[in-house]
């Protein structure tokens, strides 16, 4: 329980979030409300740990999600007591609380104005910049959100979270190549992030499926997606998402290209696409790796099928150590 | 495995205590003999020859130390993976369950997949959307 409070609760299921927020009054009651700075009283009270404030922050997020305003206000009050309301992170949390409390668009506009006023004072207040982007996106002003986000990335280009958000916004608008570019920037910063490798593979595959590029582009993107999924598997043993993506790439059936025979398995079509005679003249010059040949592709397909089968079998058999799937 | 390692350690400590006690008794005996011998004005060479510790006590001490070390080593928690792909695979598959220590609690420094933040992005959380989704989930229940 406490360990899941040490991590941001965004990815938790609604049931877990509800459970956490139901425990909130007890946790708040049992945790120290304020840590005094005086030496005498610190002798008698429990030592202050960084975990305490992480727990308050994550509890605040869970409570806001489930609509438990009272506990959320208590958590925020304690954070403000400890860090003051001019702390950048606390400022963002206060803004988040106002966003959650807002009932109509007019109130949201007021919150947005407040963010802009805060940014007038200090344009490099990164948590507030991020809140402003999130709010702009939430009320549907996507172009403004992108402008604000690129502004943030101009002065803080090493913020991988922001690059990832930019990619997600572009993806929501169907701009695959921009989304992939932003994720590649994330990979420059976090080269071992196996989930981002898999995500790029998925985006490439979706881009091919949307059929925006011509055939040469598609072949190139399929080859790239194959590499991305392979890399994610290389970085993470038995990575379900990676193997599934690999299988999808090997199994890809282009919509604009009718299969030659109906009975033919569609995995042929990827190989056709990758090994078509009208290939781009020198594919290798862009990233130095030739597209895989037919036998490699078949081997990869077989491996993905085998691994997927194995993982599924072990999961349905209820084997221990697979609880995270 | 725990009961085995614990009993091994206990046995080792018993042996060690026994060796210490034997050494103490031996030295007490030696000093007593030396005192009585000197009162009889015998030669001191005899006393010096027998004052070193007998071989069996030294052996017992060494064996006890080895057994204690063995017991403690057997009791250590399972080693964490040091290869990136094994570590990542364990996090992906087992989640929190993989980070339990020998007493069955989840380790305090367990962070899960550190790159999950790149997909959940807590700094950009859209709280109104989350609230809406949660309300719909409650309605379905």
Automatic annotation (TrEMBL), chain A:
Instruction: Tell me the membrane topology, using the record's own terms.
Output: Peripheral membrane protein
Q: Which Gene3D superfamilies match?
A: Tetratricopeptide repeat domain
Region labeled Disordered — which residues?
267-296
Where do the TPR repeats lie? 160-193
Q: Which residues form the EMC2 TPR-like domain?
A: 113-198
The cellular location(s) given in this protein's UniProt record come to: Endoplasmic reticulum membrane
Ordered alphabetically, the record's keywords are: Endoplasmic reticulum, Membrane, Repeat, TPR repeat
Do you know which Pfam families this protein is assigned to?
Answer: TPR_EMC2
State the source organism's domain of life.
Answer: Eukaryota
Describe its partners and assembly state: Component of the ER membrane protein complex (EMC).
The function of this protein is: Part of the endoplasmic reticulum membrane protein complex (EMC) that enables the energy-independent insertion into endoplasmic reticulum membranes of newly synthesized membrane proteins.
Family as reported in the entry's similarity comment? Belongs to the EMC2 family.
What's the protein name?
A: ER membrane protein complex subunit 2
Can you name the source organism?
Apiospora aurea
UniProtKB/TrEMBL annotation, chain B:
> What InterPro entries does the annotation carry?
EMC_subunit, MMgT
Keyword terms, alphabetized: Membrane, Signal, Transmembrane, Transmembrane helix
> Which Pfam family is an annotated match for this chain, by its short name?
MMgT
Annotated compartments: Endomembrane system
Signal peptide boundaries? 1-19
Name the predominant localization.
membrane
- Membrane topology, as annotated: Multi-pass membrane protein
The record's comment on protein family reads: Belongs to the membrane magnesium transporter (TC 1.A.67) family.
- Report the protein name in the record: Uncharacterized protein
Phylogenetic lineage? Eukaryota, Fungi, Dikarya, Ascomycota, Pezizomycotina
């Amino acid at each position: 329980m406490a360990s899941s409070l040490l991590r941001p609760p965004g990815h938790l299921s609604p049931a877990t979030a509800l459970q956490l927020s139901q425990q909130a009054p007890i946790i708040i009651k049992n945790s120290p409300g304020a840590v005094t700075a005086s030496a005498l009283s610190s002798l008698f009270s429990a030592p202050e740990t960084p975990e305490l404030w992480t727990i308050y922050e994550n509890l605040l997020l869970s409570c806001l999600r489930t609509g438990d305003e009272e506990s959320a206000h208590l958590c925020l009050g304690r954070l403000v007591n400890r860090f003051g309301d001019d702390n950048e992170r606390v400022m963002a949390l206060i803004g988040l609380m106002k966003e959650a409390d807002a009932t109509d668009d007019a109130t949201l506009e007021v919150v947005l104005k407040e963010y802009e006023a805060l940014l007038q004072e200090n344009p490099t207040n990164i948590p507030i910049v991020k809140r402003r982007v999130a709010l702009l996106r939430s009320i549907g002003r996507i172009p403004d959100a992108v402008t604000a986000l690129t502004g943030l990335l101009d002065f803080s280009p090493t913020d991988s979270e922001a690059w990832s958000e930019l990619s997600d916004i572009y993806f929501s608008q169907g701009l695959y190549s921009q989304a992939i570019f932003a994720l590649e920037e994330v990979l420059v910063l976090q080269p071992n992030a196996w989930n981002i490798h898999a995500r790029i593979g998925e985006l490439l595959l979706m881009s091919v499926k949307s059929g925006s590029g011509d055939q040469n582009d598609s072949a190139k993107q399929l080859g790239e997606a194959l590499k991305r999924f392979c890399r994610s598997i290389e970085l993470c043993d038995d990575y379900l998402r990676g193997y599934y993506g690999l299988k999808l790439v090997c199994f890809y059936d282009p919509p604009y290209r009718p299969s030659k025979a109906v009975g033919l398995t569609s995995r042929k079509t990827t190989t056709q696409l990758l090994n078509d005679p009208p290939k781009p003249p020198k594919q290798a010059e862009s990233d130095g790796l030739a597209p895989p040949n037919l036998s490699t592709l078949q081997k990869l397909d077989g491996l993905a099928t085998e691994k997927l089968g194995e993982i599924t079998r072990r999961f349905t058999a209820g084997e221990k150590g697979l609880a995270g799937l | 495995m725990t009961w085995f390692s614990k009993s091994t350690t206990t046995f080792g400590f018993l042996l060690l205590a026994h060796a210490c006690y034997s050494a103490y008794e031996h030295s007490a005996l030696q000093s007593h003999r030396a005192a009585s011998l000197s009162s009889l004005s015998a030669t001191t060479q005899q006393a010096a020859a027998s004052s070193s510790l007998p071989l069996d006590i030294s052996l017992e001490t060494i064996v006890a130390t080895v057994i204690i070390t063995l017991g403690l080593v057997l009791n250590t928690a399972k080693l964490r993976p040091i290869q990136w792909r094994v570590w990542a695979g364990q996090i992906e598959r087992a989640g929190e369950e993989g980070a339990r220590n020998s007493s069955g609690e989840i380790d305090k420094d367990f962070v899960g997949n550190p790159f999950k933040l790149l997909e959940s992005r807590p700094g950009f959380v859209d709280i109104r959307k989350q609230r809406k989704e949660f309300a719909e989930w409650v309605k379905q229940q």
